[in-house]
Every structure is written in C-alpha cells, then in structure tokens.
Amino acid sequence: MRPLLALSNSIDWLNEKLGGVCNWLVLAACVVSAANAMIRYAFGYSSNSWLELQWYMFAIFVMFGASYTFKKNEHVRVEILYLTLSERGQLWLDLIGTLCFLIPSCLLLSYLSWPFFMQAYAVGETSSNAGGLLRWPIKLVVPVGFVFLALQGVSEVIKRIAALKGYVVIDAKYERPTQ
C-alpha cells in the first residue's frame, strides 16, 4: 500500500502546484481584463489578442483547477444522499463514483479531444480575429486538463482504499495505525 500512497502523494503534489498556478492566473486574468478595459476607454484602443488571452487564462484555470478542486474535496456533490451515509458508506460511494464515472469519463473526454488538438496543431491554427492568438496551444489544455483530473481521481481512489483498509491521515499522509 505504501508505494500506492507515495504515488497518491505525488499526484496530490502535482495538482497542488497546478492549483497555485491557477490561483495566480485568476489574478493575472483580472489584471489583464482591467488593463484592457482601461486602455479601451481611455485611449480608444483595443486588441483581440488581449481579449483572447483572458479567455485562454480562464480556460486554463477552469481545466487545471478542476483537479485541484477535486483534491481539496470542494467539488459539487449531491449532499442529500452523501450526508446520510456512514463514513464507511461515504468512502465506498466516493470509490465507486470515481472508479465507475469520473475516471472513465475523463479518459474518454481526453481521448475524444486529442484529435481536436492534433488537427489544430497540424495546420498551425490561429484565431480568425485580427491580431488573434494561436489556437492550438489552448486546445491542448482540454485533453491535458482531463488527464490531470483522471490522475487526481486515481489518487482519491488510492486514499479511499487506504482508508477502508484502516489507514489514517497523519500530517497529510496516510499511515497504518499502530495497535
């Protein structure tokens, strides 16, 4: 179980770092948005590339922030059923939901969105707007974001199995209790 928990900790570390990047991207998107609006109204100048940059930052922090949100257990869930279950029942529901729905869905969406990126990359797709940005880099965010979410799902599955086997969290790490 220890090697799997080490893998889980590595995935958690990666998604924690991605979450930090996403937090800074929210700030950057606000600054770009405010600066773009001020320049547009003060100087009558606007640039499609700045608008698209805002959209790109939003796409990145949504797609990469999903795995961070899942790691923090801050995702949307139907609490009516979940809260009526025992702790063990909640672990089982999390485990089954993640294994049967989250991971397969993420992998399928990543697989289906990969050709979308590859086609854009192959032709060097750029925005049709004047002064727009390259499109293919942001299209890569979709499959990669789903892979990160699936990886966090794997981490959560490992942690749920560890909890069901009696491991407890000590300093953010799962350890077998001494008896």
From TrEMBL:
Subcellular localization(s) per the UniProt record: Cell inner membrane
Any Pfam family hit: DctQ
GO CC terms of this entry: plasma membrane
4Fe-4S in keyword set: no
Membrane-topology descriptor: Multi-pass membrane protein
GO molecular-function terms, A-Z: transmembrane transporter activity
TM ranges: 21-41, 53-70, 91-114, 134-151
Quaternary context: The complex comprises the extracytoplasmic solute receptor protein and the two transmembrane proteins.
Family: Belongs to the TRAP transporter small permease family.
The protein's role, per its UniProt record: Part of the tripartite ATP-independent periplasmic (TRAP) transport system.
Protein name: TRAP transporter small permease protein
